């Protein structure tokens, strides 16, 4: 799963081992609504082994923690 972080919205995309898109989610960057929604959405993908978050020292800092 990869997360592209922005000021007002984060976009997460889940891929399988062949690069096939399994799903996409866009959500607000607020801690309660956005971060929890992104984390809960990953529960539907049993095959996720790792995740990458862009901008962990800026827009993605809250999500990374």
| Succession of helices and strands | EEEHEH
Span between termini: 16 Å
Helical residues, percent: 10-25%
Estimate the strand proportion: 25-35%
List keywords for this structure.
65 residues, alpha+beta, 4-stranded mixed beta sheet, 4 strands, 32% strand, globular
Describe the structure.
By secondary structure, the chain is an alpha+beta fold. It has one domain. 23% of the residues lie in helices and 32% in strands. It has two helices and four strands. The chain has a four-stranded mixed sheet with strand order 3-2-1-4, covered by helices on one side. A hairpin with a 3-residue loop joins strand 1 and strand 2. The longest helix has 11 residues. It is globular. The model has no long low-confidence stretch (mean pLDDT 84).
In short:
The protein is an alpha+beta fold. The chain has two helices and four strands. Strand 2 (9-15) and strand 3 (21-28) form a beta hairpin.
Question: What is the secondary structure topology, with strand pairs?
Answer:
Layout: E1 2-5, E2 9-15, E3 21-28, H1 31-41, E4 52-53, H2 61-64
Parallel strand pairs: 1-4
Antiparallel strand pairs: 1-2, 2-3
